[in-house]
Amino acid sequence: MPNPQRPRGRPRLTPRATEDEPRVEAVERALTLLDTFADGHPRLTLAELAQRSGLYPSTVLRLAASLARFGYLLRDADGAFRLGPTPLRLGSLYQEAFDIAAQLRPGLARLVEQTGETAAFYVREGDRRICLYRHHAPRPIRQHLEEGASLPLDRGAGGRVLTAFGGGGTALDAEVRAQGYHLSVGERDPETAAIAAPVFTTGGRLAGALAVTGPRARIEAAAAPLAAAVLAEATRLTRALGGS
Questions:
Q1: 98-240 — its CATH code?
Q2: What letter does residue 202 receive in the DSSP assignment?
Q3: What is the pLDDT of residues 28-82, one digit of tens each?
Q4: How far apart are CA 104 and CA 82, in angstroms?
Q5: Do the beta carbons of residue 107 and residue 196 sit within 8 Å?
Q6: CATH topology identical between 25-96 and 98-240
Q7: What is the mean pLDDT of residues 207-234?
Q8: Which of 33, 87, 203, 208 is deepest in the core (most CB within 10 A)?
Q9: Each residue of 190-204: pLDDT tens digit?
Q10: pLDDT > 50? residue 161
Q11: Which parts of 41-170 fold into alpha helices (H)?
């Protein structure tokens, strides 16, 4: 049955759009169709496309025909739809032109400005985590960390997030995944604490862990707003990197 919260014939407004931006409804409807193939749905029937997009079947057919002409969609002999070669070609061009630092460094700066704590981005290398990028807080008492530093994977918020969202199977990993972030207090250094959240790239691949780190007392006192800020920026960076 159609979603009662989404009237037929109008596309859902994706998180990347806002109501005050210029919009072309026909284009948004077409893009909504392409979005329905996410989350493990490589082939969809006409009825499924209509239900997932909130569009009338007749509208889906018209849009699908236009998308097929430009290689965005294909229709199999049994009538089911799947993505065509054009998204793959565009994805390859996107990857060739993309500079991850150009996205991450401004994100770290925004996080420092908002939280007043040092922000860092970690990636996993074997059983260690590497500080790929960092932005220091403009405060005399802060966590000092250099880019390229190699840290344990089994201690600290960044390591816990990389492990949990990298397929970790412990009860703690499941808890971190359910919560969406991790707060570590005194795990690596008894006087510091950190909050980290995952950042994803295309295909749902884990890009790394975004974290803020600072003196234990400051982090604990503002844990809830700090976690909200880290999650919001991690979500923003995930979208910028083509993830979802």
A1: 3.30.450.40
A2: G
A3: 999 989 888 865 678 999 999 999 999 999 999 999 999 999 999 999 999 999 9
A4: 33
A5: no
A6: no
A7: 95
A8: 208
A9: 889 999 999 998 888
A10: yes
A11: 46-53, 57-69, 85-97, 100-115, 157-164
∠ Cα 154 155 156 (to 5°)? 130
Gap between the Cα atoms of 134 and 28, Å rounded: 36
CB within 8 Å of 32: residues ≥ 6 apart: 11, 12, 14, 53, 54, 55
Q: How far is residue 199's CA from residue 179's CA, in Å, rounded to a whole number? A: 14
What is the residue extent of each domain of the chain? 25-96, 98-240
Please state, rounded to an integer, the average pLDDT across all residues of the chain: 85
Task: Give residue-wise pLDDT tens across range 121-159.
Answer: 999 988 889 888 999 888 776 666 778 888 888 889 999
For residue 133, give both structure tokens. Answer: 């990028």
Contacts of 56 (CB under 8 A, 6+ apart): 8, 9, 50
Pick the CATH number of 25-96 from 1.10.10.10, 3.30.450.40, 3.90.1200.10, 3.40.640.10: 1.10.10.10
Residue with tokens 């070609």: 89
Closest CA to 185 of 220, 153, 160, 211: 220
